[in-house]
Design a protein that fits this description.
Largest sheet: 5 strands, parallel
Strand order of the largest sheet: 2-3-4-1-5
Shape: globular
Distance between the termini: 80 Å
Strand content: 5-15%
Family: Belongs to the AfsR/DnrI/RedD regulatory family.
Organism: Scopulibacillus darangshiensis
Number of strands: 14
GO molecular function: DNA binding
Pfam families: AAA_16, BTAD, TPR_MalT, WHD_MalT
Radius of gyration: 36 Å
Keywords: DNA-binding, Transcription, Transcription regulation
Oligomer: single chain
Number of helices: 45
Structural class: alpha/beta
């Protein structure tokens, strides 16, 4: 028999990271007879032991096992040879062992090992090849029982070794995959300390939580992101872990070694977050799933029991299997399987599981029916929070954007307030941990609930923050949905142009990345904006496309599309068809039993009945809508406004007056000042409406340019900087040398001159596409050595903002209207997307100063009028823009205390402490204690 010496050579793997934590565990072995290192492929079992042996320099016999080593004479031949290589002993001459001599040779080996007085490691690597061998078991048992305490057997295996462990008890140490997996701290050390990548904290958390510390994946990830920039990594995380290198490893090292039966089992059960044998038998039509699961557990095939005893696949492995299942069987078959699982869980009275699988299978009517069964069966807040995260856990391929809106529509009204508190707590926790990847998703969830409840301005802020995060991490479905909902908010606030910009961007993202769910909502919202402006022809093509997508891809959204279709037909004058579509929408809403859907559909149906003079039907629909929207303040306000219209048309002045009082009260209580102003200023242009100028430029907030109603894009950065300088110094002659110094600070004089002329030419051509000569430009003119940006034919939001701002209230009846318009114009700081250009800073500070002044004046005005909630809204706007504005904090807190709003006063006080005392070191607590004591109120810090 020829000996392959390579099988007896200690491998010399360079460890990715020195495993001090595991080395300490091995050091404290207490003269263990056996150290078992078992776990899934790629957890660094061999690397751990080889690096430990090399560092400790302990005499070691290393035996790399194969399937042929399951015979006793082969096993003993290699083991004897390894020992002879290490120990020169005449008692144990080298050479091959014949089958008939195996027992005798074993006795010799055992005798030698029993007399060992110096430490010795015997490593049996890939022990799974011999674990079930009837010839090897007695050999191992005998050596373990009789070996000297100085001899330690280290068994490396993918399966837990079948050893007489009970007898050994304290002489046995075990490390599993969970021990071998990298911890968050080790993850940080691996990428940042060992490989100098400077990953951010949220990236480290994301890697660890997604891979669950799987060691092999770290090396694969390192090879991919090692030379990436920060922005490139953000794009990479968006598709992680669906990365070919990782999935190729799992295919070759894990999946391809399994039988076809096991592969099929793995694919099918990847749909399940919990591996329950009774469910699986029913699902697959078999009777031995428990046997297969036990096999997978013994093989350490990325499967484990959690702390509750539930059997699960490792998250990364399950994502891989789920992707393979879709490739193997097709999306339609996978969807069918989800629905089959839903029915199985329903039959077994596991309603939460059934609801989740109906959602994933897009059977929304049945999902709504199951929710009706469970909404009063369990504690509703915990149930919704559980489902909110669990849907993604059940279906690895499901985007948050596909389930959040429907899930929130299923929420019982009674728990909305408590649910908001829970989500706000989670947002704060994620901010503290700087877990930005998950923060934008949670902000979106919270914003959606607040938006539907009617907290419009707070929701807008959260949607904007979520949008920033989702764009940063290339989460396109969430980004698109954020943009669409921001567009809806701008519609409500009377900013149609801003709404159209946002929803068009949403549609672009949706269509570019083939996201049908968000595409549908974007199309529906665009149609709604056009219907606001009575542009039926433009609206019709969008709503028809939305209807096609809803019918094919998202039945749960039909209720919204049907409602918009009803509105379009009403505006068109086809009232009979409008009522028909409205009834279809209301019928769907009733089937889903969703309060929001019922309110939404009945409100629109009532409008059609109103125009058709069916007063009783209209009144009935409005009453249903009012009841459904009882906790959705903004939409309730819309219903009451329609009731005013109804009673006005019927000539019922008494009920009209009652409803008008109710409407005003809601607006005042909730701070919906834009609705009140819209009614007062009916017939006049709003701040969002732009004059009929050929060139329209928005610089407050998102930078936008349009020429003759067509968007303008300036791709050349130097041309853009030139325009920014011109806008900042508009209607003034600018010396060319000053212009060059400000915009082109670097380069030789000739290069700067050339760059200036090219940039200027590009800018003029961008602003005036039909321009043939720069000398004929209407906007950028030259007089000798000076240049001039002429705004006579330009609409600039910043200029209108300046003209409307700072109006004092006394003696001027139109002052509040002007300030309100100015406030509506201020969608963000001056060129807020370009914070580092020094020549913009002075103008930015001036605009911000006026914004704060305007809001202070409006707050003072509404306080004097006794309209406190409107006053609060403007004070909060100031603090959102400048969280370090000490005087505003004090005025706001004092006013809240005057109105006995102690809880809110405490919240604002703690914000003041956070920003002024903790961040700036300005002591404010003593002042606050004195202020609170004046009103005999305790402050909670």
């Amino acid at each position: 028999m020829e000996i392959n010496q390579s099988k007896l050579t200690i491998p010399h793997y360079m460890p990715y990271l020195k495993r001090n934590r595991l080395f300490s565990k091995l050091d404290n072995n207490g003269q263990a007879t056996v150290i078992s290192i078992s776990g899934d492929s790629g957890y660094g079992k061999t690397t751990l032991i080889s690096s430990y042996i090399h560092e400790k320099s302990i005499p070691t016999v290393w035996y790399q096992l194969e399937s042929t080593d399951r015979y006793s004479h082969i096993f003993l031949t290699y083991l004897k040879t390894g020992i002879c290589n290490l120990i020169n002993d005449d008692y144990l001459p080298p050479g091959s062992i014949q089958p008939n001599d195996a027992d005798k040779e074993l006795d010799n080996l055992v005798s030698l090992l029993s007399k060992r007085i110096k430490p010795l490691f015997i490593v049996l690597d890939d022990y799974q090849w011999v674990d079930q061998s009837p010839e090897i078991k007695p050999i191992i048992r005998k050596m373990l029982l009789h070996a000297s305490p100085e001899v330690t057997f280290i068994i490396i295996s993918r399966v837990r070794p079948n050893l007489p462990l009970v007898k050994m008890r304290r002489r046995y140490i075990e490390c599993h995959s969970s021990d071998l997996a990298f911890t968050p701290s080790e993850t940080d050390k691996f990428f940042n300390a060992a490989h100098h990548l400077n990953l951010e904290n949220h990236e480290i958390q994301f890697i660890h939580e997604t891979t669950e510390g799987w060691v092999a994946s770290y090396q694969l990830i390192l090879g991919i992101i090692g030379n990436m920039s920060k922005s490139e990594r953000e794009f990479f995380w968006a598709k992680f872990p669906n990365v070919s290198d990782i999935y190729d490893y799992l295919s070759l090292e894990v999946l391809e070694t399994q039988s076809e039966e096991i592969k099929s089992f793995l694919y099918k059960t990847s749909l399940m977050s919990e591996l329950d044998p009774s469910i699986i038998d029913n699902f697959l039509g078999i009777d031995h799933s428990e046997k297969i699961i036990n096999y997978l557990l013994t093989q350490h095939l990325f499967i484990y029991r959690d702390e509750q005893g539930t059997i699960r696949y490792h998250r990364l492995f399950r994502r891989f299997l789920y992707q393979k299942a879709k490739e193997q069987f097709g999306n339609a078959s996978v969807t069918k399987d989800h629905l089959m699982l839903a029915e199985i869980y329903l039959e077994m009275d596991q309603y939460v599981h059934a609801f989740a699988y109906f959602i994933i299978g897009k059977d929304y009517p049945n999902a709504a029916k199951v929710m009706e069964m469970i909404r009063n069966r369990y504690n509703p807040v915990e149930l919704i929070i559980f489902l909110d995260g669990w849907l993604e856990e059940i279906s690895p391929g499901l985007s948050l954007a596909n389930n959040t809106l429907f899930l929130i529509r299923c929420i019982p009204l009674s728990i909305v307030k408590d649910l908001i508190v829970s989500f706000e707590r989670e947002v704060s926790r994620l901010k503290e941990r700087k877990n930005l990847l998950w923060l934008c998703s949670m902000q979106h969830r919270l914003a959606t609930i607040l938006f539907m409840r009617g907290d419009i301005t707070v929701a807008k802020k959260l949607f904007s923050e979520s949008l920033e995060g989702s764009k940063k991490f290339h989460d396109y479905p969430i980004a698109a949905l954020n943009l669409t909902l921001l567009a809806e908010i701008d519609r409500y606030l009377g900013n149609p142009q801003a709404a159209l910009r946002s929803v068009r961007e949403s549609l672009f993202i949706s269509e570019k990345h083939h996201i049908k769910h968000t595409q549908l909502h974007a199309l529906d919202t665009i149609a709604t904006i056009y219907l606001d402006e009575k542009k039926v022809d433009e609206a019709e093509r969008y709503i028809e496309q939305a209807l096609q997508i809803a019918n094919k891809y998202d039945l749960s959204s039909q209720v919204f599309v049907y409602t918009t279709m009803s509105r379009m037909l009403r505006v068109k004058g086809d009232l009979r068809q409008s009522i028909t579509w409205g009834k279809k929408a209301a019928g769907l809403a009733q089937n889903y039993n969703s309060d929001f859907d019922i309110g939404w559909s009945n409100l629109e149906l009532a409008q059609s009945f109103l125009d058709h003079q069916q007063w009783e039907d209209a009144e009935h629909c409005l009453m249903k809508a009012l009841h459904a929207f009882s906790l959705f303040s903004y939409y309730r306000c819309m219903v009451v406004r329609s009731q005013i219209d109804l009673y006005q048309r019927k000539g019922d002045r008494k009920r009209e007056a009652q409803k008008h009082t109710e409407w005003q009260q809601i607006c005042e209580d909730k701070g919906y000042e834009w609705l009140v102003n819209k009614k007062k200023l009916k017939g006049t242009a709003s701040a969002g409406d732009e004059p009929n100028q050929p060139l329209v430029i928005h610089v407050l907030g998102s930078f936008q340019i349009a020429y003759q109603n067509k968007p303008v894009t300036i791709k050349r950065k130097s041309s853009l900087r030139l325009l920014q300088y011109f806008i900042t110094h508009r209607d003034k002659k600018i010396n060319k040398d000053i212009l060059l110094d400000a915009v082109f600070p670097d380069g030789s004089p000739d290069a700067i001159q050339n760059q200036f002329h090219v940039s200027l030419s590009t800018l003029r051509k961008s602003l005036e596409p039909e321009l043939k000569s720069g000398a004929h430009s209407k906007f950028i003119t030259r007089v000798g050595d000076h240049y001039y940006f002429d705004t006579e034919r330009v609409y600039l939001d910043a200029e209108e903002f300046l003209q409307l701002s700072g109006s004092e209230m006394e003696g001027r009846g139109d002052a509040s209207e002007k300030l309100f318009k100015a406030d509506q114009l201020y969608q963000g700081d001056y060129f807020e997307e370009y914070p580092y250009d020094a020549f913009l800073e002075s103008e930015r500070k001036k605009m911000r100063f006026l914004f704060i002044k305007n809001n202070r004046l409006l707050a003072q005005h509404y306080r004097a009028q006794g309209e406190y909630f409107k006053c609060f809204g403007h004070l909060e706007k100031i603090l959102n823009n400048d969280p370090y504005h000490e005087q505003t904090y004090l005025e706001y807190i004092e006013l809240l205390l005057e109105q006995n709003l102690h809880s809110k006063a405490n919240t604002v006080a703690n914000e003041m402490i956070k920003y002024l005392e903790k961040e700036l070191g300005i002591k404010v607590q003593d002042h606050l204690l004195k202020l609170f004591s004046t009103f005999r109120c305790e402050i909670t810090i």
